[in-house]
Automatic annotation (TrEMBL):
Keywords: Lyase, Metal-binding, Zinc. Dihydroxyacetone phosphate binds at residues 178, 206-208, 227-230. This is Tagatose 1,6-diphosphate aldolase GatY/KbaY. SUPFAM superfamilies: Aldolase (SSF51569).
Length: 281
């Protein structure tokens, strides 16, 4: 069924696992992620960035994800990832998204609080949970270059959560969106310091390319939602490219897209084991 993220994230927090949030960009990726969740009896979050929403339009994409979620035997939330304006957040809320990120991390601390608070207040009556970001997760996020980033300050995080009433918080601890040149260096002590003073579920962004052991350690230290995007794009494209290389005369999208779909499903299943959400549905 279609659910909000509040309950599934609080259960994850209570029982010390995390839920994978997977960026989906077409029907096949939606089907792959939900199939993985059903096979492993895992709750899951489908998420779309503003560029994906722009590609297909909000209602078109939502209709697709909603059918998959409603038919699913496991809890599925539909989340707006890196919502970049109050307007887009409200459009997602109206169309039926069950979870919304308002990313004010590029604003000043005060302006981030302001924009987050108005979205939290607007979403409260419909029980739709809101995620915010404090500090900057760098790298190439969506179609924008997020630059170098800046770490989340634990005391600012505490004040931010108190002043906004936000449901979950994305923290910047050294991950970046996209692929890494070397191995990312994460500030795990900082994560623990944030966890000590902030009681809501914490979110890890930029997880493609982070070693699995490091992700598991982050979950042990309080991460309850783990975002994967780039690696799903890579998996889907790999499947399609391999099929077309072997079958250069192929003309049926169902044929090559289903190979991409299978690659995404395998990838997502492996990450559900890493974050610990298997058999938690
Ligand atoms: P990656 O593309 O590095 O997996 O980052 C995902 C993410 O944070 C989506 O919000
Ligand atoms: Zn992100
Ligand atoms: Na990454």
């Amino acid at each position: 069924p279609l659910v909000t993220t509040e309950k599934i994230l609080l259960d994850a927090q209570k029982n010390k696992y995390a839920i994978g949030a997977f960026n989906v960009e077409n029907m096949e990726m939606v089907m792959a992620v939900v199939a993985a969740a059903e096979e492993l009896k895992s709750p899951v979050i489908l998420q779309t960035t503003p560029s994906t929403v722009k590609y297909a339009s909000l209602d078109y994409f939502y209709a697709n994800a909603k059918v998959a979620a409603q038919k699913a035997s496991v809890p599925v939330a539909i989340h707006l990832d890196h919502g970049n304006s109050f307007e887009l957040a409200m459009q997602a809320l109206r169309v039926g998204y069950t979870s919304i990120m308002i990313d004010g991390s590029h604003e000043s601390f005060e302006d981030n609080i302001k924009v987050t608070k108005v979205v939290v207040d607007a979403c409260a009556p419909s029980k739709v949970s809101v995620e915010a970001e404090l500090g900057k997760v760098g790298g190439k996020e969506d179609d924008l270059d997020g630059g170098d980033g800046g770490y989340t300050d634990p005391l600012e995080a505490k004040e931010f959560v108190e002043k906004t009433g936000v449901g979950s918080l994305a923290v910047a601890i050294g991950t970046a969106h996209g692929v890494y040149k070397g191995e990312p260096k994460l500030d795990l002590d900082r994560l623990s310091e944030i966890k000590e003073v902030v009681s809501i579920p914490l979110v890890l962004h930029g997880t493609s390319g982070v070693p699995d052991e490091t992700v598991s350690e982050c979950v042990r230290r309080g991460i309850c939602k783990v975002n994967y995007a780039t690696d799903l794009r890579i998996a889907f494209s790999k499947g399609v490219k391999e099929y077309l290389a072997q079958n250069p005369d192929a003309i049926d999208p169902k044929k090559y897209c289903s190979v991409g779909q299978e690659e995404v499903k395998k990838y997502v299943m492996s990450k559900m084991h890493v974050v610990g959400s298997v058999n938690k549905a």
